[in-house]
Amino acid sequence: MPHVIDLRNERGDPLPMGEIHVIPDQFKLYWTLPDGKAWVYPIRVGRDALYVSGTFYVGAKKEWPSWMPTPGMLRREPELYEPYAEDGMEGGPGNPLGARALYLFQEGRGDTFLRIHGTNDPRTIGQSVSNGCAGLTNEHIMHLYERVPLDTRVVLYPKTGSDAFVNG
Q1: CA-to-CA distance for 37 and 32, rounded, in angstroms?
Q2: 3 is an active site residue
């Protein structure tokens, strides 16, 4: 299971409570709590060229979400994604979004097609393998999903090649 840590010991200054912070070089997601503490979850992240940093908010939440490849996925790997191009895939244990998904939006842009979601392949946790999304085990995304309300601020920090957790 994820565990609670005192971020002040790791960072020196606390982050605001009720936010998600993704640190790609550490393969960790932090859900901030009062008093400088945070739940910490091991994650997978997007492959280098596909990872997008920035500030987002949770614009939608779905249980056992359906999935459809993005146009970019179809261009990059048509042999892998073409079978799902028209109808996608219904939610369920074999779905690449896993048990739950948090949909990341930006002001003025709406849905970014980035997600924080479960995975049907937990062996990928701790790797840069996705098409841009942050992935957790299904058990962990269900734990996080119950705690995170809509409109939660989400910060995806840039990849730096360092495992330091600095406020970016």
Answers
A1: 6
A2: no
